[in-house]
Amino acid sequence: MKASHISWVGAGWARLSQREEQAWCDEITSFLLQVYVRCFWWLLFLAAIVCREKLLSPLNIWLRLLKIKNAVQN
């Protein structure tokens, strides 16, 4: 009777440690996902700042051409 009690307690500890391990894995996964998402948005933001001048100059040229086209049509 004591042997079965000991094996049941041992199984309980195994399940508890498995739950703790799963909770730890979930916590680490969640943290790494948050870091990845934050880094992605910051890199996207920095790329937009760096590329802004390069992207705005063709955009400005295109807008000027549209204004000239509209002025000529009117």
Give an overview of the whole structure:
The protein has one helix spanning 2-73. It has a domain at 36-73. The mean pLDDT is 74. It has one helix and no strands. It is an all-alpha fold.
How would you sum up the major sheet?
Answer: none
Helix content: over 70%
What would you call the shape?
rod-shaped
Low-confidence stretches: none
Mean pLDDT value: 74
Number of strands: 0
Number of helices: 1
Question: What is the helix/strand order?
Answer: H
Keywords:
1 helix, rod-shaped, 74 residues, mainly alpha, 0% strand
Short description:
This protein is 97% helix and 0% strand. The chain is an all-alpha fold and 74 residues long.
